[in-house]
Predict the structure.
Amino acid sequence: MSKLVVFSFLGGDLNQGFPVVTAQLWCDKQFIPVKLTGSLPPAPELSELYRRWQLLYAAVHQRLGKNQRIKVHSQDITNISVNDFNEVCQQLQANINAWLKFESFQNIERQLRTLLSRNDEIRVIIETNIVLLHRLPWHLWHFFEDYPKAELALSNHEYESTHLLQKSPTGKVRILAILGNRVGIDIDKDASALHGLTDGKTTFLIEPTRQKLDEHLWNHDWDILFFAGHSTSLAEGEIGEIYINQTESLTISQLKHALNAAIRRGLKLAIFNSCDGIGLGRNLADLNIPQMIVMREGVPDLIAQEFLKNFLTAFADSKPFYLAVREARERLQGLENEFPCASWLPVIYQNPTTVPTTWQELCGNFANTKFVGEVLTKGKIATPKFKLWTVLLSTLIVAISTLGLRYLGVFEKIELQTFDQMLRLRPQEEPDPRLIIVEITEKNIQSRQEMTKGLKSISDSTLAKLLNKIQKYQPRVIGLDIYRDLADPPNKSNPIQLPTELNKDNVVVVCKSRDSKYDPQGVKPPKNIPVERQGFTDAIQDPDGIVRRQILMMAQEPSSTCTTPYSLSLQLVTRYLSDENIKPKFNEDYVQFGSKVFKRLKFGRSGAYQQGVDLGGNQILVNYRNTDYQRVSLDEVLSDKFDRKSMKDKVVIVGVTANTVSDTWSTLYSTAQQDYQEIPGIFIQAQMVSQVLSAVLDQRPILWVLPYWGDILWICGWSVVGSLIIWWVRSLSHQGCTIFATVVTLYGVCAIALLKQGLWLPFIPSAFAVVASGVVIIFIQSRR
């Protein structure tokens, strides 16, 4: 995993200390970095030690005769031994590590180590405008010993993103090699290393004039700029200067416009294989060149040649830029018997807004890669793109596969469960004020101890008294959710008879349809009750046992004892709304009350129902209220121990809630309860009545689904959207987050559509299509 750590030294210097040091850790999958803050104390001894090391370094190389590219000035120390120099090197390393062990800075390091792995590829950038901090050998920090894939780079405080022009890939790395003033040095081996690159196309400018160099920078596209020859840093390292021939030298500011043009045209890497390049690195960083390699101090010929050869070998062999530099730098340690501190010299300058390039990108191997952004925000990695038709083809394959799986019913169970979960997101609603339930409880049955015939819960005489009592409270309609297919022997001494009470115009009785497959008997209605006041109570369970649908109308089998085509709930609703002057319109495909249309679920396939579900009759989805209903018990009604006005002008549903009667069902709310238990059927009937009345009178949403072709368009549309979003995201590391964010957005859209408009959209197959499309796009990108 690639990670970026940027240390910023804000204010202060080595003499005063740094009151604020920040560290930002960017990981591949993060849009926002981890930011840590600390401080560092004054360390004036580091200034003195480094200046002494610098003088001794030049003197030692002068004495050893290894100074082809190193000049020793008259005031420099020349009477020095290698042992003295080694001692200063050890002191410098010890002092740097002692300084960085300051407690406040150690807090930063400790937190970073908890977030980093030894196997992570880590780019460490030091941001500062202080020249001496750029010169310090930061690679001596013990941190780099513990993380073998970490390498250091330097940066100024101010930098900007560079927008590169798109270039046509050539399959070759275009290199402009400037071989400058070579007096006293051997740069032919540098040229040989470049010339030997099989994937490189190098143009050599040998001791060019300023005009010729300027012309090549302005008029041609380059990937790498290389310089070998004499160079130096002036004004205490603030200005870098190169000697392009034996009579001319140029500062970076004198090449500013030409270099800016080259950078805009795609220049990504500059290598200055010459002495004292800190000034060059700082000046080039001001031009926002993506990355550079310079030499910290004077460099012997052999060291410059070996570094270049080893770096190019590793980099062209597909090693990441930073690891290629570290490997080439560390290999110089084997030459330090002859060239002390050779491995200290190479250093990277990096624009922190830029992701390091790779050799493959420079070659243009990705035919459709648009190199507009290796220059992106910090921590983002540019990924190659491929043609739009590839995206659309892969999306089509995924969409067709998803539709096929849905057709086979693979998603049905989880779609139903997600539907339940979304509905449970609604806040609790108020009870429906138009309904009241009269329940016959287990206590009512046991306390009365009546002799009943068959499986009756209460006797006909008790039921007659109950209905007579309810009528006195002037309900608009009464629904009797109790089967009364067999009558008790008549009791002539009782003035209140059940047939008389059942024959009142506002009473609707129930029967059960005969089904040759599941219920060959059925239950007939009470004797002599006209079919206009009959309603069936057939309930339908989904494969998981939950009641999510209700049947408003259905044609009965010719031999059925229950002949009414209307459900109990529809009969009750129709009679209630008739007093509101709202007349129904019945059709085989819908039921309409006023402007509200209840469209049936289409037979065969509708919404999540794809396999093995009977959608016969006029079925609609049940829009449950997340609430209880007003209810009173049998004994409370008979003894007048309740609010007598609570029944006036309402729908009264009479039914049994005793647990000895096996009329219980599962709903999406009962299954979600921790102490799960089924609920009596009378409450299901109340829900069915309430949902129609609430939709017509209160504008409560009606649950509905898209037509079959609408589901197909929705699923395919999200598959396309998911693919295009992933295709446009440049960072492989961020594509997983993008897929997750897209699925969360899809869930939000589906939940809002369901809760606000009642539209049940296919979330699960759409989410599957988004994830599958994204994974396919990522797989294709990684393969390319």
Notes: The longest strand covers residues 18-27. The CA atoms of residues 511 and 525 lie 5 Å apart.
